[in-house]
Model the fold of this input.
Amino acid sequence: MAVKFSSQCVYQIRYHLVMCVKYRNQMLRRKAYQETLVGGLREIGKRYWYESEEIGSDGDHVHIFVGAAGRWAPSRIMQVLKSLSAREMFRAHPEIRKTLWGGEFWSDGGYIGTVGGGTTEEIVRKYIQRQGSPSEKALYGQLVLFR
Done:
């Protein structure tokens, strides 16, 4: 994902999301279900300005590599993707309701991880520690909030 621009900021924020099918059902092994899910996730991305770079599945869960603007909390991205994709899956394949009794497509919870473009924790720490000129550091000292 390239650096993106919005009216108030420049950003490059990407997440690795994992969402599990309710009861860890292996239904995402069916080609028709995969196509509906991927198509639905891409449409949601267009509507909400998310950028899905990769989507993959092991049958009972789906991995999504998604980029989004900073105004979107990661939990909100997950909530939108799960709710709207479930609605689309039930609409396109009503027989799923019989398999997933209870009317829910996704399990509660999931996994959200941030993904950097080669920037590691150590690089960020060193960059922050190097802020300010040597004379300012000598005069004022390094600002330390947490250690």
Notes: The first helix runs from residue 31 to 48. The chain has a mean pLDDT of 85. The radius of gyration is 20 Å.
